[in-house]
Every structure is written in structure tokens, then in C-alpha cells.
Description:
CATH superfamily of the largest domain: tm_1862 like domain
EC number: 2.8.4.3
Distance between the termini: 63 Å
Binding site for [4Fe-4S] cluster 1: 15, 50, 86
CATH architecture of the largest domain: Alpha-Beta Horseshoe
Strand content: 15-25%
Bound molecules: S-adenosyl-L-homocysteine, iron/sulfur cluster, FE3-S4 cluster
Largest sheet: 6 strands, parallel
CATH class of the largest domain: Alpha Beta
Helix content: 25-40%
Number of helices: 13
Structural class: alpha/beta
Oligomer: single chain
Strand order of the largest sheet: 2-1-3-4-5-6
Number of strands: 21
CATH topology of the largest domain: pyruvate-formate lyase- activating enzyme
Organism: Sphingomonas aurantiaca
Cofactor: [4Fe-4S] cluster
Domain Radical SAM core: 144-371
Amino acid sequence: MTSKPKTYHVKSFGCQMNVYDGERMAELMAAQGLTQADAVDADVVVLNTCHIRERATEKVYSDIGRLRKEQLRKNGKTPMIAVAGCVAQAEGQEIFTRAKVDVVVGPQAYHNLPDLVAKAAAGTPSLDTDMPLLSKFGALPTRRKVAPSAFLTVQEGCDKFCTYCVVPYTRGAEISRPFAGIVDEAKALVDAGAREITLLGQNVNAWSEDTRGLHDLIRDLDRIPGLARIRYTTSHPNDMTQGLIDAHRDVESLMPFLHLPVQAGSDRVLKAMNRSHTRDSYLRLLDRVRAVRPDIALSGDFIVGFPGETDAEFEDTLSLVDAVGYAQAYSFKYSPRPGTPAAAIVEQVPESVMDERLQRLQAALNRDQHAFNAATVGRTCTVLLERPGKLPGQLIGKSPWLQSVHLIGDHAIGDLVEVTLAAAGPNSLTGIERIAQAA
Ligand code: SAH
Ligand code: SF4
Ligand code: F3S
């Protein structure tokens, strides 16, 4: 490709931070005068990749191949391809050489995307996976148009080195973004239409500046006029301070929801994972959170089939799930990641055993999710409307407990509506507007 690109498309995979990064990359392209297009038509396609589980790299190669083929068939040309995200960080050099893509850019370097695209358009493909000391955030454009519920990255990277995980390698060491820049971005998000902000970090509750922690940041953001709701994710049990727990009691805009991954219920497995918390310390932590915020909805991440996990150890995970009663959760089969210590453990659990464990775990988690939803029927709460539903006049939004709630009413996306939760389906609830009820 040698002509100047006019259109772009960003495709993000993986976690919420990648969604955030994808939005910021789109804003960078738009600031260069490019307009958004479908993947099959765009002059530049950014693949914002995730490396967390198996076949991540293979998937990138096949996506590149498919994109090229589809554009060739439809428009008689191939697009400029930029590979971004965690696969770019981990396997960028190899993808650059093997797939001959135009740009490879890592998660800490994407503020350079416009330069890299310009260079590629002039005939010089390039790779940038630097992790500069100076953060990218200062070089990103101001937020202008966002959804009612917006993401804001405040912390990146991880120093925990769980033995199964690639994130410390792809995202680098833990860094906290400076307070002032976060507050400015939060204000810009609210000016651009956000009513709810979810603070993001690989270990978001490790955020700190001088003596201040995440709870201080939350208390300051709470004062921004027009910002109705604050959430944060993902937290690590070891960074869950009393200050943050207390914020769940005191700060009204902080939503009663906590995603706190535990991964497994057996102490031996937790130790082998290098989680540095025990089953018991995790459960006691949740007790302390529930003591200040009894209605808090809990969420978690689980891995089944960590190398050497026995049947009895898996049962410990099930009994932990029973003890907690999660409102929702994510569960995964263990996937050996190249270069991580766990991948070198000899006794890998057979696929069929992992399949069976995952099925049992998910059945338990689904059961608890339905029970949680059913238990909220009859409560009144606010719903932040985020998108249209399938039926005429129907809108879908989120409850404080992050449940999907649909309602019929004369409202716009971005409205906060007071409802009574009237019925619970498998994946969502029906809300009835309180004013409508009174009429
Ligand atoms: N920093 C966060 C989330 C990191 S990745 C945390 O520690 O909670 C999100 C989830 O992916 C993890 O919580 C874990 O459950 C899962 N995960 C990470 N590496 C994995 C692997 N190698 N195999 C399977 N699941 C994995
Ligand atoms: Fe990965 Fe563990 Fe860090 Fe989470 S805390 S990102 S699971 S190493
Ligand atoms: Fe995936 Fe990177 Fe997020 S590996 S889960 S995109 S931090």
C-alpha cells in the first residue's frame, strides 16, 4: 500500500482494557482525518489482539488471511494491516516477518499509531513494541463522543506473576496513571455523554499515587457533576484495602458490584498458581465487604484443570462457589501459555477432564446467577439505559448490580430510570418504571 489511507476499522478482542485501547486508537485515526468503515472496506484495519488463552497467535494469522482475501474479492485490493494488543507485544516480531503486516504496535506504544501508519503508507512497514517510561496517555486526543457507560484506564500492567498468566509479559510492570490526567479524562467523558465510568486496570485496586489509593480517586471522581455511577475492574484480592471496602459503604455513586477473581478453591492449587492468597483469606475478605455493603453483587474468574489439579481439589473450587454465591462469573479451561512457569509442569490435566470440570463449574455458577437475579425481583433501583431492545419502545440497561434490565418506556439512551425489578429471565430482568406504576 502506498497511497494515503482514508478509512479505518478497529477490531478489539480480549478484555475491557483492549476495548478501551481500541476506542483510543479509533480516536487517533479519526484525529488524522480518517473515517470509520467496515473491515471489508477499510484502508487500514487494526487488529487489537488478546494473548490470554490458546491459539491466540494462530487466530491472528487466520484473521489477517481472511481480511486480505475478503477485500481482494470485494474491492480488488488488500488493506493496510496493523496488529496491536497483547499478541503484538508477545509475538510481534514473528507476525511482522511471517505475515508481512504493515504495522505492529504494542499496548504501551499505540499513541505512535498515526506515525506508523504514515510510514507504512509511504512504503516502510514498522514495528513498535516499546514500553516507554513516559505514558502514552498524554499523547492521546481528548474524548469527544462516548457511550453512557464508558471505560477509563487508570492502572496498567501486573507484578503478580501468577504462574499461568501472560499479562505481566504483555502489559509490563504495574504502573498507575497520574491522578490529574485521570480526573481530566473523567470530566471529558462526562462532557462527552458518559453517566457511568468503569475504572480499568489489570490490578485496578493497586492504583496509587503518593499515599493515595483507589478509594481516594473514587471519592474525588464522585464529586464530578453529572457522573452518576462509578465501577472498577479487575481487582486482586491482595490489593483490596480497608479504604476501598469502606468506599463501598460511603460513596453512593460507587456501584454495589465487585469482580474479584479467585481462580481456584484449593490452597495447594492457589499456591502453585502463585496467587498469594488462600481460600480462607479470600472468603474472609468477602465477609468484610459484605459487612459494609450487604447487597454487593460478587463476580469472579475461575480456571479449571490447572496442571496437577486433582478431582478433590476441583471439588474445593465447587465448594468455594457454593460458599460465596456469585452473582456472575467467568470460568475457563487452563491453557498453557508459552513462557509461563505453569506451562512447564509435566502433569497437565487431560482435555476431557477439563471439559467435564468446566461443565460442572458452569452449571453451579449459572444456578447461582439465576438465584441472585431471582432474589433481586421486587427491588427498586436505577437502570442506566445503554441500547435499544428488540421490541418497539424497548430499551436495555444495567442495574446497580450489573444485571441487564429491559423496560418499555418513553426514554432515551443515557437516561437513568427508577424501576422495580418485576421478573427474572435466564439472562436479564424486566423492569417496570416507578412513575408508570404510580400512574
Ligand atoms: N488481572 C486480572 C485478570 C487477568 S486475565 C486478575 O488477576 O484477575 C483474566 C482471567 O483470565 C484471569 O482471571 C484468569 O481466570 C484467566 N486466565 C489467565 N490466564 C489463563 C490461562 N493461561 N488459562 C486459562 N485462563 C487464564
Ligand atoms: Fe495475570 Fe495474575 Fe496478574 Fe491477574 S494478577 S493479570 S491473573 S498474573
Ligand atoms: Fe488479553 Fe491482554 Fe487483556 S492478553 S485479556 S488483551 S491484557
